[in-house]
């Protein structure tokens, strides 16, 4: 499993090489990332070093669905959904 604390290494969103072109509302480099909510139409983190994080994998699954998924998702909800579907 990927350890987000190790990936962060004291960095902030502004330290990300994709900061200027990324519109994701949940940034793994933001230490408050667990407090934010996300909806299907919003962007997902584009930084390759974070693509193995479970909540980003689940965001991609939802974001790429052809049918609308109603509601908001927290990081914890995204993690739980991914784990349930991938048991």
Architecture overview:
The chain is built from three helices and two strands. The protein has a two-stranded antiparallel sheet with strand order 1-2. It is globular and about 35 Å long. Helix 2 (54-63) crosses helix 3. It has one domain (4-85). The two termini are 14 Å apart. Helix content is 30%, strand content 5%. The chain is mainly alpha-helical.
Number of domains: 1
> What radius of gyration results from the CA coordinates?
13 Å
Unreliable spans: none
DSSP strand content = under 5%
Mean pLDDT: 94
One letter per element, helices H and strands E, the order comes to HEHEH
- The coarse silhouette is globular
Q: What class do helices, strands and sheet pairing give?
A: mainly alpha
Largest sheet: 2 strands, antiparallel
Determine the oligomeric state from the structure: single chain
Count of alpha/pi helices:
3
Strand elements, count: 2
Which strands sit side by side, in order, in the main sheet?
1-2
Percent helix among the residues? 25-40%
Distance, first to last CA: 14 Å
């Amino acid at each position: 499993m990927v350890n987000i604390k190790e990936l962060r290494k004291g960095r902030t969103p502004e330290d990300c090489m994709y900061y200027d072109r990324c519109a994701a509302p949940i940034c793994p480099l933001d230490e408050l990332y667990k407090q934010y909510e996300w909806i299907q139409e919003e962007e997902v983190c584009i930084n390759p070093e974070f693509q193995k994080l479970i909540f980003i994998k689940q965001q991609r699954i939802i974001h790429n669905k052809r049918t609308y998924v109603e509601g908001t998702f927290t990081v914890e909800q995204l993690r739980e959904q991914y784990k349930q579907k991938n048991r």
